[in-house]
Amino acid sequence: MAPQRQEGPRTNRAIRVPEVRLIDETGDNKGVVDTRDALRRAEDLGLDLVEISPNAEPPVAKIMDYGRFKYQEQKKKAEARKKQKVVTVKEIKMRPGIDQHDYDTKMRNVEKFLAEGDKVKFTIRFRGREMAHQDLGLDVLNRVQEQLGEAVKVEAKPKVEGRQMTMVVSPK
Questions:
Q1: pLDDT at position 16, please?
Q2: How much of the chain exceeds pLDDT 70, in percent?
Q3: Which residues pair with 165 in a beta bridge?
Q4: Distance between alpha carbon 6 and the CA centroid of its chain, in Å?
Q5: How far is residue 3's CA from residue 162's CA, in Å, rounded to a whole number?
Q6: What value does the mean pLDDT of the chain take?
Q7: H-helix or E-strand containing 165?
Q8: CB–CB of 32/71 below 8 Å?
Q9: Are 48 and 64 in contact (CB under 8 A)?
Q10: For the purposes of burial, counting CB atoms within 10 Å of the CB of 28, is it exposed (0-12), middle (13-18) or buried (19 or more)?
Q11: At residue 111, does pLDDT exceed 90?
Q12: Cα–Cα distances in Å, from 110 out to 54, 89, 121, 171?
């Protein structure tokens, strides 16, 4: 059975180098110190010796409360996740002969989606003999592109896939 790998930096007795560059609990650099002395100093203060930069020569270790350090890291990660914006792709389906009022209603929704930072995928569905007039679908997508103007970036130009034509735009 393989030994269990430790998550995060090495602490206390897991630090197996002969000497470390020590940073004390106040943040002062104490220079290169024997690892046993650094560990003894940390234990006297009731704190932990934590390896901050293991790839340095010699490795940098800091005297700190490791439990508090892990808690602060966890809080930072949670805050970063909270601020993260998940970009979703909203789909707007149209037909080549879409009526003006229907078009206006869909475009109001598109502007709302773009304002929220979402990408929008336009799908023009062709049925029956409409397949012979794909230029009408292209005209609708060009009209959309014109109306949105400089506010959007066309990520996927209009292309035909089977019985539908698609185009993807995203906010700038």
A1: 87
A2: 97
A3: 124, 160
A4: 26
A5: 54
A6: 90
A7: strand 164-171
A8: no
A9: yes
A10: exposed
A11: yes
A12: 51, 11, 9, 11
CA distance 96 to 132: 11
> At which residue do the structure tokens 């602060």 appear?
72
Q: Which residue has the tokens 């698609």?
A: 166
Residues 88-108 have a mean pLDDT of 94
Q: Does residue 3 have a pLDDT over 80?
A: no
Q: What is the pTM of this model?
A: 0.56
Residue pair 23/29 in contact (Cβ under 8 Å)? The answer is yes
What residue type is assigned to position 126 of the chain?
F
- Report the C-alpha gap between 42 and 51 in whole angstroms: 12
β-sheet bridge partners, residue 122: 92, 167
- With the C-alpha atoms ordered 59, 64, 65, 68, is the resulting torsion angle positive or negative? negative
| Region 128-147 average pLDDT | 92
Antiparallel, parallel or unpaired: β 60-64 and 29-34: unpaired
Q: How far apart are CA 145 and CA 78, in angstroms?
A: 39
Interatomic CA distance for residues 167 and 30, integer angstroms: 61
pLDDT in tens, 113-123: 999 889 999 99
